[in-house]
């Protein structure tokens, strides 16, 4: 499953950011940029970098959708696959926050409350992930752990998006540079997991 997630992330970064995936999804024809030469090589332009907060919000939305899918499914196989995907996504997300985003925010805002609290919340999430990884969905206790994980994540996301992100955005941090570093680290982590 980790290989699939890593491949999907790399594909999305390469294609969504270049604007190729949207037409594919919508069934629209792909359009090429006009060139003065018919034999010109395809453009190797770099995608516009995402700022750090946009990257984290995208992760939050993706995990939220995975939890919603879990709630809808009754298939044990699908539940197991979704939980593996959720755990992998949360693990990578937490790692880039703890390694890059939180230290930068803490330094820029001279924070002594939001970052430590978020780090403690990560510890609770990691504990539940450890209880779920590699375990077969076996009924109500498994579902209860996934539900509690979902609730922890929703609480954490709400605090980040309503408290930490607005303060970080108004700080002196270069969110694009931070986002570039976080995206690169995320790519590395997903490649390692593959």
Protein described:
The chain is built from 7 helices and no strands. The radius of gyration is 19 Å and the shape is globular. The model is unreliable at 1-43 (pLDDT under 50). The protein has 194 residues and is mainly α. It has a single domain, classed as Up-down Bundle (Four Helix Bundle (Hemerythrin (Met), subunit A)), CATH 1.20.120. The N and C termini lie close together (8 Å).
Q: Which regions contain 5 or more consecutive residues with pLDDT less than 50?
A: 1-43
- SSE arrangement, N to C: HHHHHHH
Strand content: under 5%
Q: Helix tally? A: 7
Radius of gyration: 19 Å
User: Which second-level CATH architecture applies?
Assistant: Up-down Bundle
Structural class: mainly alpha
End-to-end gap: 8 Å
- By CATH reckoning, the class would read Mainly Alpha
Taking the sheet with the most strands, its summary is:
none
- Strand element count: 0
